[in-house]
Each structure stands twice: as structure tokens, then as C-alpha cells.
Amino acid sequence: MNAVELDRLYKTFLLKKGNGFRRTQQEVVAVDSISLSVEQGQSVAFIGPNGAGKSTTIKMLTGILHPTGGCAQVLGLVPWAERGQLAGKIGVVFGQRSQLWYHLPPDDTFDLLARIYDLDKQMYAKRKAMLVDRFDLGQFIKTPVRKLSLGQRMRAEVAASLLHQPKVIFLDEPTIGLDVVARHELRDLLREWNREDGLTIFLTSHDAGDIESVSKRVIIINHGSVVFDDKVSTLRRRYLGAKVLSLKFHEPPKTFSMPGVTVVKANGYALKLEVDTNLVEIEQVIQHLLRSGPVADITIEDPPLEEVIAHIYGQRKLDSEEQSCQEGKRQDGSREANLATTSRLISNCASLSDSQAKEVRSP
After folding, report:
1. What Cα–Cα distance (Å) separates residue 275 from each residue in 20, 98, 142, 237, 245?
2. What's the whole-model pTM score?
3. Over 50: is that where the pLDDT of 363 sits?
């Protein structure tokens, strides 16, 4: 059974411009006929540039927004039609919006949420104790939220969203603003929960570390449409056309130059290169480097995932601009053809009028 199913989900907004009687309306497409499914227990990264439609999709999947068209189901329920039933089966964390009461400690918020979800007291007590232990909340569970660090607050946010034992959790930018240590801690907790408890995770993030650490599948959305849907490893393999070589020498190497290879950094005994594998094979580069000097250490790495994703965004933007340019040329050609047709009609009418005038003057 699938935890999440989308079938041609579509959402538009009306954007109003102008003042007074000169106001105009423009329809903006936020989500453009998305179709996908997520199996139960799967961890999925749903990513894209700003304005791509990620948050809008999550708001429709949680019942906050109604779609303009299409349909969707989460755990067999239609989110916007059966929101009350769905609320007890899903958890939601928005990185920029808190569900914790600002002036209350997390402990009080947990008690309040238990009442809202109508949880059994004994079951709730066991669940809360387990969450406090696994998320390491004991040191600040009685501290008002306003006095917590951002990392502490986000751990409490995720714990609060898991309080009622949801089967699916939607995370919208959960690590935004967190420092490196807090990010790693939160990623480890999410990965552990997915692996051991079978929790379905639907994650949006601009942080490539979140994607690599938490998710096994990545869905890329751009301009409201899905442009990539596959494993993270496939994303790297399909779009990576470069390798990064880092070398250390026993003595300063000779000056290195080779087509398809860019020297990123050269510092005494160390050398860092970027190799375009579409132009030159990595084996040839290594053989050339071994002749440059005695090598002490060498590592071969893929470029950061951020670069891969940025490349996809950039390629899609170029394709969109090229399509718009071609459409513009077609419109220009059609306009020129229409002008030529109009000119011929005017010329024919003028000739016909001259001919009729001559006939009238002739006896």
C-alpha cells in the first residue's frame, strides 16, 4: 500500500495587480499536474528551487490547501476532504513555523497535544518518556520554548509531531538555521526512526546533507512539474560529468596541464583538480600525474550534491528559455505571415477598386 499518492495534482492562484478600477488578475500555476506515489516506510526528499511548488504540495497533502484540479490520497484519505481523520495519522513540521507554545515548556505543549489528539493517558506517558529519551529532551523539557536554542527547539518540534504515533511525517525545511552539530543530530534521529519504526518521511530541504543523510529517493520539482524521480545514487551517476582529484606529493610536483582538467588548487606539495570525464578518462589523468612527481596520497571524489542539483536547475532553466525563444520565433513568423497576407489583400482590393473605377468611366 502506498502512503502517498498524487494523480495530476494541480494548483493555481489568482494574483491581483493594479489599483481601483484598473486592477487586473493573473493566474499563477504553483503545482502543474504532478503524479507520483510513495510507498509506506520510504524516505523521500522532495526538492526544488524557491517557488517550485514544494510547500504548496505539502499544504495540499496535509489538507491545508484545496487543489484546483487532480486528486491525492495520504494513507487512503483525501487530505482536504477528510482532514480531521488524517490529522491523527500524520505529523507535520514546518521549519519556519512552530507548533510549540512560545511561553510554555515543551512538556506542557506535549500534554496539551495529548488532549487535542485524545491520547490514552498510559499510552501517552510511555510514548512521551520514549521520545524524551531518544531525542535527548530531558535537560530542557521543563524550560520555556523562548529560552531554547534553535537546535533544541527543532528536536522538540519533531518529537511533538511524533507524539501521536503518525505513520507519515512531512518535514518542510526542518534544519533551516541549525548549526552543523544540530543538523547531524536531527538527521541521525530521522534516519533511525525511518529504519527502526518504518516511519514514512516526506522531506523538503535546500540542504544536500539532509537529502544524502535521510533520503534514499529524491524527487526534483521545478516550475510546478516533476523533472527527476529516482534514487539519490542514480541522480549522482546520471548528472555527474566530473570527478575531483586531491593529491599529496613527497616533493613539489611539476607544473601540470592537461585538456579537460582544471587545477582548482595548487599549494606546495598538494594539488586539487577537477576532471571532466566527458573529455578525458580518469585513468589517463592519474597516469599523467604519476609522472609529475612522487605521489604520497590520492583521493577521487564526486563533486558535492549541491553542484549536481544546481546543474539540473540550470539545465532546466536553459531548456525553458530555449523553448520560450522558439515559441517567440514561431509567433514572430506567424505575425509576419499574417502581415504579408493582409498586405496582399489590401493590394488586391486596391487593384479591384481601380478596375471597377475604369469600368465606370468607360462609355
Report:
1. 59, 45, 54, 15, 7
2. 0.70
3. no
